[in-house]
Amino acid sequence: MHARLQSVADDMGVAFSPREHAPSTKSALAIAAFARREGRLAEWREAAMNAHWRDGRDIEDRAVLAELAAAAGLDPQRAVDFLDDPAVPGILQAQRIEAHQWGVTGIPTWFMLPEGWTPEQGVPETGPRPVRVVGCQPAEVVERAAQLAGARPR
Q: Could you point out which of 50, 69, 70, 131 has its C-alpha 20 to 30 Å from the C-alpha of 140?
């Protein structure tokens, strides 16, 4: 897996430094729920993804998570304390159920959604349609998915 990811990263000119151990993402996902509540989800995602994929940091370590929370503009102590909140297992279970309903089978999973589309509409027979891209994929795969969803090349 690492060789494939390294190849894609090299092709895209992206710094990549994964850890040998595949970490549990439960704590990072729990803090993401906290960050969403605090209006800092995008900042948290960027900090956590860069720490794991680019910097090879241990996203299971609470000290690392506190540093990342601060970098994302969160109160680091409140973010780490949230990991012990009794609601966290239920939050993670709800995320797992929603991900399963959307067909998420790996992280990251990207959804390319046509403008104005909602899941209640179902998948259209013709024209732009929702497309799922699972895992680290070459740029061509992501570009094709975006085109299928209705994006136009610039």
A: 50
